[in-house]
Amino acid sequence: MPIAFNQLQYHFYRKFPNRIESRNFDMKKSIEMVCRLLQLKAPRRKFKLQCLLFPSPTVEGVNKCKIRYNFTGNDLPIIVAFIDSFDEIYKKRAKQVGGCQLYFVSEGGECKLFSKLIGKWKPINNMNETLDVPCLLFFFFLCLLTRTASSIRTACHDSERSALLQFKQSFLIRESASTKPSAYVKVQQWKPDEKGKGDCCAWDGVECNYNTGYVIGLDLSSSFLYGSIDSNSSLFHLLHLRRLNLSDNNFNASKIPSGISNLSRLSLLDLSSSAFSGQIPSQVLKISKLVVLDLSWNDLELRSPGPRNLVEKLTNLKELHLSGVNISSTVPQILGNLSSLVSLSLEDCSLHGELPATIFQLPNLQVLDLQNNPYLTGKFPGFNRSSLVEVLMLANTSFSGELPESIGNLNFLSHLDIRTCNFSGQLPSSIGELTKLKHMDIYVNHFSGPIPSSLANLTQLTYLSLSSNNFSPGTLSWLGNQTKLTVLGLVRANLYGKIPPSLGNLTQLTLLSFAYNQLTGQFPSWLENLGQLTYLSLAANQLMSPIPFWLGNLTQLTILDLGQNKLQGEIPQSIFNLGNLRTLYLHANQLNGTLRFESFLNLGNLIELQLSGNYLSLLTNITINRTVSKFRNLGLAFCNLPEFPDFLREQDKLEILELSGNKIHGQIPKWVWEMSKESLSYLGLSSNFLTGFDQPISSMTNLRMLNLYSNNLQGSIPIPPPSIFSYSISNNSLTGEFSPLLCNLSSLAFLDLSSNNISGMLPQCLANLSVSLLVLDLRNNSFFGSIPQLCMKGSQLRMIDFNQNQFQGQLPRSLANCDMLETLNMGNNQLNDTFPFWLGKLPGLRILILRRNQFHGTMEEQTENVEFPRLQIIDLSFNRFTGNLMPQQFQNWINMKVVDAGNLSYLQASSDLQTQTYNWDNYFTYSVTISSKGTETDYEKIQEFLVAIDFSSNSFEGCIPENIGNLKALRLLNLSNNVLSCRIPPSLGNLSNLESLDLSHNNLSGEIPMELLQLTFLGFLNVSQNNLTGQIPQGNQFATFESNSFGSNPGLCGKPLSKTCTSFQVSPPPLSSEEDRSREPSLEFDWKIILMGYGGGLVNGLAIGHIYAPNIKECIIESALL
Description:
Layout: H1 5-15, H2 27-41, E1 60-63, E2 66-68, H3 86-92, E3 101-105, E4 111-117, E5 120-124, H4 158-169, E6 172-173, E7 206-208, E8 215-219, E9 225-226, E10 243-245, E11 268-270, E12 277-279, E13 292-294, E14 299-301, H5 307-313, E15 319-321, E16 343-345, E17 352-354, E18 367-369, E19 375-378, E20 391-393, E21 398-401, E22 415-417, E23 422-426, E24 439-441, E25 446-449, E26 463-465, E27 470-471, E28 487-489, E29 496-498, E30 511-513, E31 518-521, E32 535-537, E33 542-543, E34 559-561, E35 568-569, E36 583-585, E37 590-596, E38 608-610, E39 615-619, E40 633-635, E41 656-658, E42 665-668, H6 670-674, E43 682-684, E44 689-693, E45 705-707, E46 714-715, E47 726-728, E48 733-734, E49 750-752, E50 759-760, E51 775-777, E52 782-786, E53 799-801, E54 806-809, E55 823-825, E56 830-831, E57 847-849, E58 856-858, E59 873-875, E60 880-884, H7 887-891, E61 908-914, E62 919-925, E63 928-932, E64 935-939, E65 948-950, E66 955-958, E67 972-974, E68 979-980, E69 996-998, E70 1005-1007, E71 1020-1022, E72 1027-1031, E73 1051-1053, ...
Parallel strand pairs: 8-10, 10-11, 11-13, 12-14, 13-15, 15-16, 16-18, 17-19, 18-20, 19-21, 20-22, 21-23, 22-24, 23-25, 24-26, 25-27, 26-28, 28-30, 29-31, 30-32, 31-33, 32-34, 34-36, 35-37, 36-38, 37-39, 38-40, 40-41, 41-43, 42-44, 43-45, 45-47, 46-48, 47-49, 49-51, 50-52, 51-53, 52-54, 53-55, 54-56, ...
Antiparallel strand pairs: 1-2, 3-4, 4-5, 6-9, 7-8, 61-62, 62-74, 63-64
């Protein structure tokens, strides 16, 4: 047995914990580990050891200090490296400035030192001799001896043997106490010999000083130790200990004993992942010689003493690892003075405040891990070329700013992880100079501009994620040289065009996601080369082709997501050869054909299947005695199902079931509510022909989302289980009243009961829901009576829609508590109140609809206090308002002054929901009915840039305020059917985005301002039924209007009226066609529905739910695997 094992084991295990598994270790592997250990000791010294085995002090094959040693398997020396004196020798005796040195002990015991001089090795007798020839290597390899177990060295001391045995006896051995695969019971052979003696220096995990026999190292990491430890432990009798490693055991929530201070000679203390708890004792700070301190991943706190005290006392630290320790403070400035620091790991420590920039510039720093401190801020400083940083991990912090161009100076950087931060600006092209970079993750930041082409230089990359940023549109031309990539995530990277065939070179890929881009063309044929793929997602692009047959050859696939494309044809039979598949998403394509569900049962590992939203006809009859997979996620929406599939009866692990858009008739059978009743979190049965329930639906104890809209359901409102988060049962034939039981649903965020026949008065308890509820949609029912108080303090309500009911009385003043409110729609009721000036204080109110009620009074009072800073749609039409339109009321409508035509998103309320397996981004798009271009128009979705004012059909009088012309974002303006007088203000010509202008049925006089010719987007104009005079302006949009736009104005003349002007007035000539084209809108205003993807993660999941019914809330499911 090699006697050097105990001396080497600790050092090997610390760097290579998975390599040493037993005492009978392989000599060659051990020597290779020594080589690697030395590389880690001097990582900046450039050298390569190809082999290290030799029977004699003969060195051959030396080339630029790349050392190769000969060996024969029958004459191997046994390594007994003096590891305990390594640091001392390394620092004090090897004082060379150039050349290479090799120090070892030969078989005869004679120590020799060889140096490399001009291609020749020669012995050196003087250890302090200075060499003249520079060398790339500063290399020192300890001593090699050919010895046996009978080697002459001092045995361990009786007292320390006894202390070790007592320490062993104080613990139980439990396999659950250690988690690493390399764990084994190191103390199993700790036994005295027949005489009660025995050399404890030969025990596993024990390291002794060669000359004195004192125990100087104890490595019991991953040893299955279970039990408590206190200051009376015999461990603290080992007063000569320099290295103590008890990591990856279970000390049963013990506090770190104060007796630790007895071990004052410790240079290394590793108690990581060992179930310690409580405050880190001040006694740890008394161990002033500590070079390595690792207390990570325990239930510990560092409060008193705090991090500043620790840094002040332990000034020799090179490695400080406190990940998972609750520090809950800022990072002390003094940490930036700890110049010896090589590795700093403070992950998940509840740090906050700004990180001192000096930490990045510590001269010896190689590893910096600060991830998962979400309130920690900071910016990258400039980096010098002298920096030794290899690892930067800042994921899930609040770091911000730009990546400096000087990041290219980090010559040794191999790992960059800044995902889920707030970085912005362009990625610097110098990032392509990081030629040693292997891992780069910038997922979920705000980077903009193009993806730099210099990324093509990063040929060492194995992991790359650029997902979910704000890059400008670009192609994949920079990708293809990174042939070592195993993981590639480019989700939502704004990519377009065809996927280049050069990506076929990336044959090492195991995970590939291009989801949520605008990639086009055929299904890429080069994918057939990527035989190691286990995860492939091309979801939410515009790929147009059949699914290729050869896809069935990628037999390693476990996840395949091709959803939301334009894939056509039938599903190829080869798909059913992918026996490892666990997830198959083919939803929202144009696939067709008749398919037997039984075919999917050949995929024995399949637990997630999404076929929704195609043109498939699915046959669900299953052969008798055929085993059916236990699905977790099953989407069969729009699959022409005539009934509930019978095989669902046996499904007891479903979390998601989508059966919307089929042809299922009649009652929902009782077994549906018993199926997976403890696991189901989402159930979609909308857009069928269901009529009722065989039993109450409250039996599903974990149901979070239930969609029953657009059926023929009758009876009273079914009460969902208390766990419900989103409940939509709109567009049915429900009757009865609003049950007070609904007020008890404390988790409810989305409630949509719209378009039913529900009546009665709303219960007073409704305000109880405002703390959790985001959306309350009761429109198009028959509710009556006064509206109860809706909002308590702390209300979360974003949208309230009571449109088209029979409510009476006043608006409830508790609406002033709805600080989060964005949409309030009380239109088409019988409310009798004055204008709610008090709503102007709501900071986020964007839509206010009071049309067709009995509101009255003037708009003149309190106008100096009215703000409505974010208001963009206001409809007061068909009420009884009187008085003048006051300029002050328009002055504060700031949101109507800012033009943002590039924002194509929709107004909506959204909220994340996380279940045990899935992340959901739930959103409910707002809708309104307003007058546009002379007709009432239903806007089922409201784009961010729609800005509208409708004060029509009231009794407003006086002049139109000039400052309405400052509301440059206006697209719809309707002041018709009032008694307004004076002239049309020329300032309306400043409303450059205006599309519809209705001033009809007033008492306006004077001429139509020529400035209105500037309204090149104007598609509708009505100034009829006024007292206007003069010639109608000619040209531009005015040339498109019919005569009814100007009728009943006796004083008007000119086209399109038949009346010619008696006194010719010169109008500006129409623009030339070329000028006209130059004024064409850069953005075509189009009310198409745009289905947008949401979510994140290196690999995004699928969008399912109500993407097939755009007027209802849409749901996104994410399955983030990385």
